[in-house]
From TrEMBL:
Membrane is among the record's keywords: yes
Keywords of this entry: Cell membrane, Membrane, Transmembrane, Transmembrane helix
Domain of life according to the entry: Bacteria
Any one cellular-component term (Gene Ontology): plasma membrane
Predominant localisation class: membrane
Name this polypeptide is given: ABC transporter permease
Coiled-coil ranges per UniProt: none
GO molecular function, one term: transmembrane transporter activity
Matches recorded under Pfam families: BPD_transp_2
Membrane spanning stretches: 23-43, 49-70, 77-96, 102-121, 128-146, 166-186, 215-234, 296-314
Source organism of this protein record: Streptomyces antnestii
Subcellular location field: Cell membrane
Membrane-protein topology: Multi-pass membrane protein
Amino acid sequence: MAEAAIRPAALDRARVLQWMQTYGVYAGVAVLLVVNIAVTPHFLSAENFRTQAVQVAPVIIVALGMALAIGTEGIDLSVGAVMALAASVTALYLGYGLVPALLTVAVFAAVVGLANGALVAWVGVQPIVATLALMVGGRGIALVLLPQLKDLHNPALASLGSGDVLGIPYLIVIAAALALLVAFVVRRTTFGRQLLAIGDNRAAAKLAGLPVRRVLMLVYVACALLAAVAGVLATARLQASDPTSLGNLMELSAITAVVVGGTPLSGGRVNIAGTVAGAVLIQLLTATLIKHDLPPSWTQIAQAIVIVLAVYAARGRGKR
């Protein structure tokens, strides 16, 4: 009799956890929207939605790369440093024109990604350790290149940061296009299937003859390039290069968005739609607290609670 009573309770709990894993992030976004519509003045204004979308765009872009790394059962803590490095390189090479500056940024980012990938794939260093080294060293290089904030006055860069197409800011268009591209790569390409297979079981992937090292290298290069794109866009929006603060704690925001969005830290699965929703959830949560004059410390506490809930809901999701 007791066992019969326990089974329904266990099933109900399993259903709740499964629902949280699948739809929790979307429900969280919906709840925050309803709450803000009810209690936040001028929340429904077009200007507010534009501001929120522009602010979350860099987080989405970084989180896309983080999702790829986590999908391989890895992680990349250097994304914030890459953003700072992109800001410094942009400021240094912008005098040669926007395109040469962007190409130089891409080269620097690719080098960081190759370094991360080599440490993980060839040397066998744990991803958290390998990318932690680049997290510290990358920001140090950024500060050596540009020790202090520098205002930028370039019409092309200004257009990238504040321009729009059909009323939609370039930042939003770029973030949406990259999200669609990454989703296509994960779901529809051989590379995406190999990435998920490696995250699911790296040893089995090697035995199956998959190019594990090459895929890991490409994943960390892609993660660094996406972080560099976010760094350039953030710099363009601010019209200033500030390697001291740009990208600070971005790795934590990106990891939060990915985990809350339904991608397990154990790898083998990547949820791009959930990652985007996770970034939106964090942005709405932060904006809600700020608009109601709560100190930044409350934002950090709220994000910590969201992370704990997401990790709790993810228990068992990554078990193989």
